[in-house]
Amino acid sequence: MSPMPPSPTPTSADLHADSAKEGTVPIMDRLKAETRSAHEAAEAIPFNAALVAGRLPLARYVGQLATYAMVHTELDARLAHATHPAIRAVWRDDLAKAPLLERDLAALGQHGVSVPAPAMAAAHEFAGRVRSVAADRPVDLLGYLYVLEGSTLGAAILRQHLQRALGLGDEGLHYYSPYGNAVMAHWKAFRQRMNEAPLAPAEQDSIVTSAVEAFDRIGAILRGLSDGL
Ligand code: HEM
Fold first, then answer.
1. For the packed helices 117-136 and 141-166, what is the interaxial angle rounded to 10 degrees?
2. CB–CB of 55/224 below 8 Å?
3. Could you read off the pLDDT of 43-60 as tens digits, one per residue?
């Protein structure tokens, strides 16, 4: 009689896929891994490249603040008023970015605001999408929140470029430094709340899909703001 073939040893990829199916991979690990290429694409958008190279005109920076304010005004309010238990477990009022954007706009608006039409259209669309997701499937707003909250990590670096290239002081840079020196502490606390939030496996899947969508939508705004850069 021939011996039984050895049972195949599962690879780590198999194990990861199995535990992802069962919802046991922490949601923040999935979000990071499954949006990695979207992040790389976002970094390569001419607007961000110009910002890092110190070539971003001030009025275009103000245009970014104006378009982001349209999105955050909707997103912050919908998250603050949500009743879904996972959103209530994650949201804290100090995550709101609209007040910071409004302060920066008040400080810099007199220098002019350059928002090419495609950027304005993309911001309107994203704000409208936030409203419809809040009505139909509010938990997916956590995917949008992940992307915008995660962008505070890169913002700490980008802020220095903006300060140097545009000669800005603290006034005008509140959005780019929402937590002062405590960016990592805030991010760790946010990670923990997200990972511990009560989320069904299907909700985790749709949050990851929404995060990819948010990168696309922010990308559309930033590509619109890249006109001529
Ligand atoms: C030139 C532009 C950018 C630079 C230089 C940059 C840089 C960074 C850096 C250094 C980190 C920390 C990475 C780590 O600790 O593993 C990070 C994380 C992150 N960034 Fe960006 N970033 C940029 C643009 C963006 C944009 C446009 C968005 C979306 C609006 C974004 C969203 C995120 C997110 C969600 C994370 C968290 C990743 C995680 O889950 O750990 N970034 N970025």
1. 150
2. no
3. 999 999 999 999 999 999
Return the H-helix or E-strand segment holding 55.
none
Contacts of residue 28, Cβ cutoff 8 Å, sequence gap at least 6: 146, 191, 194, 195
Indicate whether residue 178 lines ligand 1 (CB < 6 A): no
pTM: 0.91
Domains of the chain: 37-224 (1.20.910.10)
Ligand 1 atom closest to residue 146's alpha carbon, by position in its atom list: 35
220 lines ligand 1 (CB under 6 A): no
Report pLDDT digits (tens) over 2-38: 444 444 444 444 444 545 555 589 999 999 999 999 9
Distance 163 CA to ligand 1 centre (A): 19
- What sign results for the dihedral spanned by CA atoms 51, 143, 91, 28? negative
Atom of ligand 1 nearest to the CA of 49: 1
